[in-house]
Design a protein that fits this description.
- This protein has 436 residues and is α/β, with parallel strands linked by helices.
- It contains 18 helices and 13 strands.
- The strands form 2 sheets. Strands 5, 6, 7, 8, 9, 10, 11, 12 and 13 form a 9-stranded mixed beta sheet that branches.
- The protein is globular and about 70 Å long.
- It starts with 5 loop residues before the first helix and ends with a strand.
- Bound molecules: S-adenosylmethionine (SAM).
- S-adenosylmethionine (SAM) binds next to helix 14 and strand 6.
Length: 436
């Protein structure tokens, strides 16, 4: 059943919770969208939420120039609704009268009748002056690229040639990408199954396990999803398993494993490993690893523990391979998680890089001689990537880089950076180390 204004109301609530309460979109999305029964209305709420957050820095600048004075703290729900309204008018091909009238209708549902005239006036002005407004907000980099100022500056420093492409890629809608379970089928065969199910898709140039869908669909529509034939995972994340040079009989540690995307891929690549130990410090997220492995029909040893404190969980047997998919800023995947731009602060990078060094230091003694440790982040900031690895290599003389020799990405002093948007993929960093 269609309830007028409901998608806008739910979207504005999610935007408000991210902006004013620092909540992550991941935690909000499930419960909020579940309030909408009609699938098309649900999709609209999702689009409005992601789009508003993606373009939030730009929309805030536009709103600022349209309001005589900022709304009071108690009316920040109306502020969030105005951002959602502006997103519809400035970024979506939607009849303006519908966008305005349905947004004004939500004000009444919020019990803030007094704001109806204000919302109506602001949105009508935005509609009338849209090109002049666009031009005027382009004057500040944060509004122009819709990213925080510190983020733009850091990219300019780290990537003087590529920073604009990185910012543009961060504002795109991401494709839905599948990883085919090669222990059960192959990409060409699965592509045929998709075609038969009426789902348009194409093989990705690499990795050879990746299939890109023309349009996102619910996993319920994917043939064999619940039998483990396929998983949802960006192509960049799918590059990790092959970089580990896995072989039968090895003992493998996945140190920061949840929700288990890479754990599953490791097992699909070489199902007869001697052991896979998957650790995550977040017990609730570890449940997702269990569910994913169960769906793929694999077993692993799952531990809820701090990977940086091996004394509390390690049995003393070295690992042939260690994957450290480290906690990071996630700056390479903002197109999938636009709330990160609003939640992450410049000061977080220092704490993250200390945590990354701590994990590297703690896990290094667990690697067997001649073994491989693959360090991965979904960040584009050098402080979390090649700079961190340089510091680590300078302090550990039994560690050497094992060059990646790949056909993608930018080779850095240590490791390799896949910039967001390259071959349509997320931004990831990889460095491979071996022990003398
Ligand atoms: C980038 S995510 C891992 C994604 C996962 N590898 C995948 O492919 O699905 C990083 C994970 O590290 C976990 N984490 C953070 N600090 C940790 C620690 N000290 N020990 C273990 N896990 C940690 C977080 O809970 C989070 O699940």
């Amino acid at each position: 059943m269609k309830t007028p204004g409901q998608p806008r109301k739910i979207a504005a609530q999610m935007v408000f919770h991210v902006l004013d309460q620092g909540q992550s979109l991941n935690s909000l999305l499930g419960p909020q969208l579940a309030k909408i029964s009609d699938p098309r209305q649900r999709a609209l709420a999702q689009e409005l939420t992601f789009g508003t957050l993606r373009w939030c820095y730009r929309l805030e600048a536009v709103l600022n120039s349209l309001l005589k004075k900022p709304l009071k703290k108690k009316d920040r729900d109306v502020h969030a609704l105005l951002l959602v309204g502006l997103y519809q008018l400035l970024f979506l091909e939607m009849p303006p009268h519908a966008a305005v009238s349905e947004t004004v209708g939500v004000v009444r549902q919020l019990g803030k009748e007094w704001a109806a005239g204000l919302v109506n006036g602001v949105l009508r002005n935005a509609q009338r002056q849209s090109s002049a407004l666009s031009e005027s907000v382009d004057g500040t980099e944060s509004a122009r690229w819709s990213h925080p100022d510190w983020w733009v500056k850091r990219l300019q420093q780290d990537w003087p040639q590529d920073w604009q492409h990185i910012l543009e890629a961060g504002n795109q809608r991401p494709p839905m990408v599948l990883r085919v379970n090669v222990s059960r089928t192959d990409s060409s065969a699965y592509l045929q199954q998709l075609k038969q199910a009426g789902i348009e898709a194409e093989l990705s140039p690499f990795p050879d396990t990746a299939i890109r869908l023309e349009k996102p669909v619910g996993v319920d529509c994917l043939p064999g999803f619940y039998d483990g034939l396929v998983s949802v995972q960006d192509g960049a994340a799918q590059l990790s398993a092959s970089l580990l040079n896995l072989e039968s009989g090895q003992r493998v540690l996945d140190a920061c494993a949840a929700p288990g995307g890479k754990t599953g891929h490791i097992l699909e690549t070489v199902p007869d490993l001697r052991a896979v130990v998957a650790i995550d410090s977040d017990e609730r997220r570890l449940v997702k690893v269990a569910e994913n492995l169960q769906r793929l029909r694999f077993n692993g040893e799952l531990l809820a523990a701090d990977a940086g404190d091996p004394e509390s969980w390690w049995d003393g047997e070295p690992f042939d391979r260690i994957l450290l998919d480290a906690p990071c800023s996630a700056s390479g995947v903002v197109r999938r998680h636009p709330d990160i731009k609003l939640l992450r602060q410049a000061g977080d990078l220092q704490a993250l890089s200390q945590q990354q060094q701590r994990l590297l230091d703690a896990l290094w003694p667990l690697l067997a001689s001649g073994g491989i440790l693959l360090y991965v982040t979904c960040s584009v900031f050098k402080q979390e990537n090649s700079d961190a690895l340089r510091v680590f290599l300078d302090r550990h003389h039994d560690a050497a880089e094992l060059p990646l020799r790949v056909q993608w990405g930018k080779v850095l002093p240590v490791g390799c950076q896949l910039l967001p948007g390259e071959q349509g993929m997320d931004g990831f960093y990889f460095a491979r180390l071996t022990k003398a």
